[in-house]
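Troubleshooting: if your tokenizer reports a length mismatch, compare your output against this known-good record of 277 residues.
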Amino acid sequence: MWEGDARRLGTSEEDRIATAKKNIAAIAASKLWVDAHAPKLFTELLSPEQTNREVLHWLKAWDGIVFKRAPPKPYKKEYKKKDAGAFNTHVPLDEEGRPVHKILLLSGAPGVGKTTLAHVAAKHAGYRVVEINASDDRNAETLKRRVTDACQMRSVVGGGAGANKPNCVVIDEIDGALGGAEGKGAIHALLQINADEDAREEAGKRDKSSSGSGGSKKKKGPGPLNRPIIAICNDLYAPALRPLREIAKVFRVGAANKSAIASRLRRVCLEKGVRAD
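Known-good structure output:
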């Protein structure tokens, strides 16, 4: 009797596992093709290679602060070239070894792959992406707190690929919530974060100059910005973005090469067994 019950329980458990696997497979199969076949690796990106590499080098320029290792050097043959088509992978650093521009602003038409580039490049550089949609909360102080908290935390949730990795903050649709009284909240938040950084650096310089007469005292206030922040917009020249353009490292993401898109579509059709003209 007991053996029969045990067998039935075992079979029931196996059935549940098999059903769960089928459900997972069904969910995966039901994903939109644009999501299922979205670029996951840096080499799969279809956005212009020059932009991809320059964004990645800006992220890697944080390595000295974030990962305690020397950032990669710019390619000499690229850095010395002055023609318009040359890559510029040189990223100037401040006295603390961080990029001079603490915020990167990605701009471009809807659908060119700005958000995908930000996510894939950040993961390739060793970060866990924390995405904040500027349209979700238009209060500048709340957004500032969310961004600074994410920059100062290290991901420890779960045991997946993102566990125990430093965060990279991606603020999407920064120009998508510009209407209303609080429409400029995300932009104001980034300007405040940058202003705090400038004030902290100036205070540090004053402390160094006066250290011979009594030493320096530890200042209260926000700590240094030691994590990269990427903001994404469609209209780079929206009037509200003017102050952000002046302090951010700006990249314009152009449309992907048509032949590269066609090649990717052919590959997807082959994988799906779909005939395409």
